[in-house]
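Appendix B, record 7
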Amino acid sequence: MRNKLTALLITYNEEDHIQEVLENISFADEVIVVDSFSSDRTIEFIKKFKDVKLFQRTFKDFTDQREFAISKANHKWIFFPDADEFTSENLKKEIQNSLENTGDIVAFGIKRNFYFKKKLIRFSGYQTHIVYRLFNKNHCYYDKRKKVHETLIIHGNTKILKHKLDHFSYKDEKSFKNKLTKYAHLRAEELFEKEKTPNLFHLHVKPLYRFVNQYFMRLGFLDGKEGYKISRLNAFEVKQRYFILQKMIKKQKQ
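Structure tokens (predicted):
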């Protein structure tokens, strides 16, 4: 007998594709959305789905919001995609088949197809990237020390699924830069709480290394101009993170 599944989403101003996303995850037995008081038409569109349970909650950080969403789930098995990730029919079938006999597996890893606009990014460091979006909440939880780039702590065995999620994180250069700026703020808060102090290495060498690593070592140049943009913007995020941390420390000393 197949384990029942709760699909979770956290949202903020997702009006462009929230309806498509909710239709995409409707194969789950329960769908829950936790929204951070969107200012666009996201809530209006969510309310069209009568079976979707909606909660609105002030955003603190990604881990905190995900853990709150999990606390509302009625089933032990969780599917937790990002709001810009889409599940293919093959992946849906694989998820459903996996839940029929999970055995000693408590979490399933999933590889992703990354798209910049509509172009598939084959390299740039993403070719080996795996995320754990399908898991048993009784054996897994998010690392509370992480405010962004959430890390699932898994107590038990895992398995990698064959089919991939389609990830449309890179709508355009401007929106991607805005997203990375938000990530930089949260990472700076993490570092501030750990009492880290930035220096010239953090502000100059680490951003350069991020670019070189993604564009050359991780073959970003094979993705053409998109690979260059992605590598450059990820380097920007690293520099912003330490620049913001530097400002936070200066403000504390005033």
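Remarks on this record: The mean pLDDT is 96. The longest helix spans residues 224-253.
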